[in-house]
Every structure is written in structure tokens, then in C-alpha cells.
Amino acid sequence: MIKHYGAEGKIVVVVDILRATSCMVTAFAHGVKSIIPVASLEECEQYRNKGCIAAAERDGKIAKGFDIGNSPYSFMDTSMKGKTVALTTTNGTFAIQRSTAAEEVVIGSFLNRTILGNYLISQPNDVLVLCAGWKGKMNLEDTIFAGALVEDLKNHFYYENDSAFCAQTLYNSSKKDLFKFITSNSSHYKRLKSLNLDKDIKFCLQNDVYPFIPVMKEGALVSMTMESVKVDE
Amino acid sequence: MIKHYGAEGKIVVVVDILRATSCMVTAFAHGVKSIIPVASLEECEQYRNKGCIAAAERDGKIAKGFDIGNSPYSFMDTSMKGKTVALTTTNGTFAIQRSTAAEEVVIGSFLNRTILGNYLISQPNDVLVLCAGWKGKMNLEDTIFAGALVEDLKNHFYYENDSAFCAQTLYNSSKKDLFKFITSNSSHYKRLKSLNLDKDIKFCLQNDVYPFIPVMKEGALVSMTMESVKVDE
Questions:
Q1: Interface A:B, Cβ pairs < 8 A
Q2: How near does any CA of chain B get to the CA of A166, in Å?
Q3: Can you list the domains of chain A with their CATH numbers?
Q4: A143 touches chain B (CB under 8 A)
Q5: Residue in A with minimal Cα distance to B6
Q6: pLDDT tens digits, residue range B173-202?
Q7: Is the ipTM here above 0.85?
Q8: Burial of B93 (0-12, 13-18, 19+ CB in 10 A)
């Protein structure tokens, strides 16, 4: 459930830039067939026993007992092609589970920014951008992406809440050098700093690397077909 | 209870710029003895029957059956001197009630901005700025004031959450013309527009009009004594 901001009838865009939703887009671009977002490490382990690839992150690191966490580089391996991935992360998978009331749940990141924006413009539904944040709190990088999306959609939607305008203002204050703005100011970056994730972060802040939109279908993310995302020029 | 951001041991600054906390500061500047924040109109009515001045706002307007709402101009009357006011508003009084776990609850507004900042700097406690927002959602004007406070405290505190940095960025984007920024972009302003409250809003956006800090003591707001707020120059 998304308190105060009902998901009913809306397309919910789940955003966890560092790094769950960036990973999901990367995975589909490398041929992954589907991604099952799971809440617990135990559940993730069970999917591994059924032959899925199991990816698990806790507190920015690969969870103990797993080989893959949520570095986008882990999902670029050609051995991923056609596979199903079970993924659990600190914030991103929880955000997906809160969105069950939505008309549709899609995955947003800088990596698929423009194609996602075009898709949202082509649909009749209202849009709710759900930033995963960090353990229930807002964070900088997800809010900035939400602002980028508001900027892209501004001629096609009006916004209902001040949060959309605030995110847009933040994006416009930071867009000249997103990496510098985020690494200078983000509390999440400070948490991740010791983990040497600058390469991951730089990757996740690139616009339009992969024209893929992950979408929830019957409990798993799949890649939206290109016909669905085509919009009139 | 303040979810995710514990109030324990902290000074909580409650902020409801349009207009509850601006009114509270104005009221003390005009000699009001104490303000009892109450949740319901019924409770407010009961205090009136006990001889208090009853002020009640709902959805931006004076609540039915009351003479005073939350226009700061209503609290400038000399007849207020020495009186106790029972006040209920849509968002501000609820925010106060959520802060009971705090070490101390104080009231913030542009009207008492600098003296409040100086007081916070003089105290050993961490500070949590609680924006009342609008019916559970964030709003622009409270967030901008939180950012003004972050700006004033930046050499004395470090911030724990990205929300403080985001608020500061918003304040710095808007400070050249707060009135224009807020009236062009705030959803709350759009709600209030038909009520012709521009005069109230202009008043509430002025810095340092009244050197008073309302503080909660045994269920009521009183004005902090000047000795408590004195800081070394």
C-alpha cells in the first residue's frame, strides 16, 4: 500500500537508481527472460534451488551466501540470456511489493529514461513515481530521477502534488553534473563510499543506454514488447 | 509518533507556514499567554466554554461556528493580551501531537526564523524539523522553510538525511522571491487562491518580524523566556 498517494488506476514507476532498478533494465538488455522480486534472502535461496539465478543485496553489499548483488555489471554476462533471476534488495523490491494496487507497475532508471517517458505519455493513465529511497526515508538520487521524469513529461501531464515540483527543481539544479551533485551530497553515497562503487554509480546515471521497460506481469518483471512502447512522432 | 525519524532526545521544530505556526508566533508577539493545540472542533468548542479564545481552521477557512481561523491578522488584536487560545488546524496541530516523544517541541516560521536558529545552535540536542505539510503529504512552503533553517544552521550541524539537503537546495532556488516562487508553484496556494489569502501569505513569508519562540510545556504552547534564547555573540 502506498499511503496518501493511492496507486489505484495509475501506472506506478518504481525507482531505485542505486541500484536495483538500474540493474533490472540492464538485465533485460542482456537477454534475461524475467525477474522475480522477492522480499527475503530465504525466498531468494529457494528460487536458486529451483534453477533461477539468485541475486541478493543487503546494505549495499552482496548478501552472504550469494554470488550476485545489485551491481549492474553483474547482469551483463551472456550466461544470463533466457534465464529467470530472483532478486532481493534493501529498498527496491519492497517498493514493488507496495504497488500491487496499481493498474500497471513499470521500472524506471536513467538507463531507460526516454523510452519510459514516451510510454507514459502514450498511455491514458495518471502516473505515480514511487521512489524506493533508503529504509523508508527519501533519498537524493531517486528524487532527482523522479524530477527528470517530471521534466520530460511536463508538457503532457500536470502535477497534483508539490513533491513532483520539488523533484523537478532538484533535477534542474543538478543536471549539469549529476555524478558530482550526487556524490557530493547523497547520504546513500556516503554509505556506499567504502564499497568503491563509483563505477556502478557513473553507469547508473547515464541517460538512455537501454531501450527496455521492465513491467510486472503475474508476479514477475518481464520486458515490455516494443509494440507497446511505440508512440506517435 | 514520527515514523522513520525518531523524535527521542531531539528538539522538534514544528512548521506549518501557511498558516498555523506563523499564527502562533504572531499570537505570542501580541501578548497571548498560552495556546492549547487541540485536534477536534468539539474540543476547541469545549475550551471556548471554559473562557478561552477558540480558533479553528478547516480546509483553509474559518471552521463553521467559530469567529477566528488561522489568519495571522486575527491574532494581532489587543484584546488577545493575557488570554489562552485553543487552536485547531488541518495540519499544524496534528504535527504537534505527533511530537510528544521529543525532548522539546518548538514552533518555527519565517517570522521567528533567526532567533529560533540561534536558540537551536545554543542547545546540545539534535534537531528534527517536522513539516506539517498537507493531509500527510509534503508541501512546498514548509519544505522551503526547513531549507532556510538548514541554511542558517549549516555551520553548526551536519545533516543525517537527504531530505535536509533537498530542502536547502529548494530554499536556495527560491529565496530571491519567495512569494512568487510559492504562489507560482504551491498546490496549497492553488487550494487557497479562491480565499484571497495573498495578504496573509505575504505576511507569513517575512523574515524575523517577531523575536518569540513558542515552546510546548505541559500540553500548551507558551513563549520561551528571553534568557533561554540568549546566545553568545
A1: 61
A2: 7
A3: 11-217 (3.90.1560.10)
A4: yes
A5: A137
A6: 999 999 999 988 888 777 777 777 899 999
A7: yes
A8: buried
